[in-house]
Amino acid sequence: PTFLLADVEIVATYVLYNINRVKLENLIHRVFDSAQLDIEITDRFGNPVRPREWFLVPFFVIDEAVGRIKDGTITDYVYDPKAARLVNVGH
């Protein structure tokens, strides 16, 4: 499941054009890997599930990441949870 089996409040939406969705998802996972939520929950059938689609990242970092996706510079960055910011990894 790509959800936490709970109600969700949408707090922001972003519009991106001409982007391969699979590549975008892989990119998001790479950039925010260090902030991926590590949790196990039980689904409605009683089976344990480890969602991999949730990340603990401040909104301002998401805004910056979307801007960097748009301008093509995101590939040089990863999220540093201790600093709570994107850091340049200097490819």
Description:
By secondary structure, the protein is of the alpha+beta class. Helix content is 26%, strand content 13%. It has 2 helices and 4 strands; from the N terminus they run H-E-E-H-E-E. The strands form 2 sheets. It has a two-stranded antiparallel sheet with strand order 1-2. The radius of gyration is 15 Å and the shape is globular. The N and C termini lie far apart (33 Å).
Task: Produce a short descriptive summary.
The protein is of the alpha+beta class.
Annotate the secondary structure layout:
Blueprint: H1 21-31, E1 41-42, E2 48-49, H2 59-71, E3 77-80, E4 85-88
Antiparallel strand pairs: 1-2, 3-4
Helicity range: 25-40%
Kindly state the mean pLDDT as a whole number? Answer: 91
Largest sheet: 2 strands, antiparallel
Number of DSSP strand runs: 4
Q: Summarize the helix and strand pattern as letters.
A: HEEHEE
Structural class: alpha+beta
- The percentage of residues in β strands lies in 5-15%
Q: First CA to last CA: what distance?
A: 33 Å
Shape: globular
Cα-atom Rg, whole angstroms? 15 Å
Which spans of ≥5 residues are poorly predicted at pLDDT below 50?
none
Total helical segments: 2
Q: What's the arrangement of strands in the largest beta sheet?
A: 1-2
Features:
two-stranded antiparallel sheet; two-stranded antiparallel ribbon; globular; 91 residues; alpha+beta; single chain
